[in-house]
Amino acid sequence: MWLQNELKEHAKRVLNVNYWSMIAVTVVFLFASRGVNTFSFFNVYVSDPEILDKYLLNGSISIAFLFGLLSSVATIANTIISIVLLSLIVNPLTVGIQRFYIRSCRERTAPGEIMFGFSRSYKNIVKIMFLKNLYIILWSMLFIIPGIIKAYEYRMIPYILAENPDISAKEAFALSKKMMNNEKLNTFALDLSFLGWLLLGIVSLGICLIFYVTPYYNLTNAELYIVLKQKINRLNTNP
Question: Contact at 8 Å (CB) between 193 and 220?
Fold first, then answer.
């Protein structure tokens, strides 16, 4: 049985020892993920409602329709491009960052470790992370609760890939499910314990998120992965 306080205390110690490397990694990831989220291939000018109203009032139905069509095409194109960038860049970077945090929990680690996802079994990492996101979306379409449950069930997949990049998709999902068995509620409670820190980060306009909360949270989750992995190893050793 793991305790929140123990995970957090160890995470704080690691953060103090390797602070600036943690901040550098956090900044890189935030810029990469923000870049994907704000990416726009087409000029949003075509979707400006004031422009559409202008042409409708002037009786230019065909031009208004054309602008509406272009807006729809732009939205679809931007969505597809964002998904591609997420799959090819952000997801492998996520795996590399989790590897950095896992290794940092036990030894001083260079920030360059975050590129691991691009140098080892890249295609396999991209495929499994894409499937993880896809399954969570599909389950969420049924209802929000199943989506949340699956998100927690698949939570350890990036960490598993960080240490086992050649693992098959079937094994990765099965192992994450096994690790999170009877642990989803406890992990949810762990997330809730960071709610106050998250609010502080929002109030500070993101400054606290970058310089403390995000690396602290990620280190705590890396500690959780290590504990759950040890639990699984004990179960396999003593069936």
Answer: no
pLDDT in tens, 114-150: 999 999 899 999 999 999 999 999 998 888 888 999 9
Non-local (6+) Cβ contacts of 37 within 8 A are: 82
The 10s digit of each residue's pLDDT in 196-216 is: 999 998 999 989 999 999 999
Q: What is the pLDDT of residues 159-175, one digit of tens each?
A: 999 999 999 999 999 99
Q: What is the DSSP string of 137-186?
A: HHHHHH-HHHHHHHHHHTTTHHHHHHH-TT--HHHHHHHHHHHTTTTHHH
What whole-number distance in Å separates Cα of residue 69 and Cα of residue 210?
A: 40
What is the number of other CB atoms lying within 10 angstroms of the CB of residue 17? Answer: 12
The one-letter amino acid at 24 = A
